[in-house]
Amino acid sequence: MQETHVALTAKMTGRPVISATGLFTPPESITNEELVASFNAFVDRHNAAHPDAEPLAYSSVEFIEKASGIKARHVMSKAPILDPEIMCPRLPERANDEISVMAEIGVAAAKQALERAGRRPEDVDAVLCAASNMQRAYPAMAIEIQQALGIEGFGFDMNVACSSATFGIQTAADYVRAGNARSVLVVSPEITSGHLNWRDRDSHFIFGDVATAVLVEDAAIAPAQHWEILGTKLKTVFSNNIRNNFGFLNRAHPESAGSADKLFVQEGRKVFKEVVPMVAQMIIDEAGRLGIDPASLRRLWLHQANAGMNRLIAQRVLGHEASEDESPTVLDTYGNTSSAGSIIAFHQHNEELAAGDTGLICSFGAGYSAGTVFVRKVG
Ligand code: COA
Hints:
disordered N terminus; Peroxisomal Thiolase, Chain A, domain 1; binds coenzyme A
């Protein structure tokens, strides 16, 4: 082992930082116009085939943009999603000796994070695969990603829906704080097109596919420019307003296996009303605990589910209507990418900030679950 192997020789501080992030964006994208044309073609076919049933209503580009702020979303499998006869992704099954698609996009994001940090895979101690949906029960996606990158140590999967990445960041930060790891990759491959019901007018426009990676490390080995983690806070409160009942016990009831509740379902209005005050208060309380004036936050990288929710949360936290500079959105081109959303916003909108600037990465979603990661730029 060479002495230049920085991760093995530096004296650890127990202070966690974000050393770098990575992003994989699927090349294919669906515009609202394409999505609505496909949905409305499905509606026409359905209504013609079921003349005695309550007719299904059309979707509309105007509604989608106004209600959510979403204009397009990236997907891993565009043509079948838009085919009114199929309306779901068709990703071919792979043999056991091929890398799985979730691991593949996770690895792409992770490689970028490692490259940006100047970190060699062999210097990473752990991989957490934190996402809303896992491709299979086991072996863990995290272990497959670990294997593909050549990382020693350990990995495991964790699922806290849209808050998976911030829960993963706190878990990684706790390993660093406890001295159990120096360098941890939190990878969030989100193929949300697989859990979305593309035939459901209320939600067919919401989600998109992506993968992100966050490298959480001890400050002692971090690159000169990094984001110090000032504090992390997690919260969960049970709610039935966002559900997905898909699971391995469904095979006990094959007659209900294809029912709509085996995909994403939500009471969007209730989610909006209940989550906005919960998250705004959580941010304000946690800022208080850390001795940070919420109004002084330079930037909020909020979960990307709905532009209106972000507007309200940012306003309550900052005390004024947030500009795009203060609370950037990536919803317009990515849609809701579940746990990856706030990380995409952070990845794309942090470099120009100055040393000493303080910001907040914040997620919220099903569970309910919410996570805050207050960060300060160094270097
Ligand atoms: N096209 C056109 N009209 C539509 C439509 C569509 N695709 N979907 C719904 N509508 C109609 C409804 O029928 C309703 O019509 P009505 O007023 O005549 O009854 C109207 O638009 C409002 O519907 P509603 O479902 O109340 O919309 P909304 O303003 O609440 O917006 C969401 C829907 C989902 C965008 C919004 O509730 C939301 O973002 N909630 C939070 C979601 C969230 O963060 N979830 C977490 C997921 S991780």
